[in-house]
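mind reviewing both lines:
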Amino acid sequence: MRAVPQVSVLDVESDPDHNRSVVTLVGPPAAVQEAAFRGIAKAAELIDMDAHQGEHPRLGATDVVPFIPIEGVLTHECIGLAHDLGARVAEELNIPVYFYELAAKTPERTNLEDVRRGEYERLKKEIGVKPERAPDLGPHELGKAGATIIGARPFLIAFNAYLNTDNVDIANQIAKAVRHSSGGFRYVKGMGVMVAGQAQVSMNLTDFRYTPMHLVLETVKREAVRYGCTVTHTELVGLVPQRALIEAAQWYMQLDLFDADQILEQKLAAMDEGAPIGYLESVASKAPAPGGGSVAALAGALSAALAAMVGRLTAGKSRFANVRDEMQLLIVKAEQLRTALTARMDEDTAAFNAVMDAFKLPKETEEEQAARHATIQATTCRASEVPLATARDALAAMELALAAAQRGNPNAVSDAATAAWMAMAAIQGAALNVRINATSIDDIEKKQGWLKEVGQIITRAESLLAQTQEAAVKRGGL
């Protein structure tokens, strides 16, 4: 998962009693989707469900994959990511797929526990027999990787309370008191399990905004007293939103007039927010890379990001319902381009450094000279192909900018026009890098092909830019 550009694995939690690992990763939608697919594929390769046992319910080697909107992403986009990933898992990995929560295809599969009822062992017997157990996608039989459940939902907090007893029945009774399905809190799921010799009330808080952690914990404590028990400690599995902890601290400390701005780290983070560090400093340094090709890719990524922003400002508004589907597709394409162009910022630098390394190769003998020349040619070809790919993707981003300007939210038409100009900067910058590298290429046919394509891209880009400007003037009065 970490090998996917722009994906950050924030946390990995593994528990031998549950026999389960929880991986938390973040990144742009397309990148996270790719990382999820790779994780599912690797789990299917490594984990044999016929030999797997654990306290936690599960259907497959990759049990559940939820897409969660954190920032700059709409819920319906996460639903689309879930459905697209499910189709790929079913087709390429031949694994049955069930959709749940907001991505559920039927109301009966909204709740995860309903989909997972009976676990892998029961599903293996029923999947090809009972119509209600048929997967949403994929084969109607289970291999050793089992089935995978994919969905979209709000942020979930996995919150567990340990009791000073090994009686799991007590933990189950307490779980019954707090979980929604048996009359407890609306956004709580729970069960009792045995972990490291202690009974544990294992809970999922599916929306802490309405059912906060401190309220659930206090109820668990009161219920424990009924059975002569106490809570010895609690734990979080995976990550937790800062707001949830702040609210708990505010409640327990009775800080009625508390303001989050009173947190020192919050103030320090606000000071650093948006500060141009790292990459821009590298560009401004005397080092020759990152240089123009990398910056051209950055301009293209910014173009795609702006197009995605206009799409979101449109798709989320009821008055633009007639173009919602088009804008949702635009967002997906823009995010894919943004991911590719952002990754190419580093690819361009790597390609340039490879050329420089080639020039440092020994050249004392004829064999060394020949090998050096061949390496220089190969690396220079690569250094030409990377910006050429940047120009192609930037042209695609400009197509999206035009659509955003013509049919997107008119209040954001200036952003669409800016996206077009950024794409043009990317194309012109990338074209310059293609041309300068092409001068060193021996293969005349390849060189002429590059230059011809660059010319065609620029011609098309000039037309798109003019159309975008026209739309901006017409719809925004610019």
Summary: The first helix runs from residue 29 to 46.
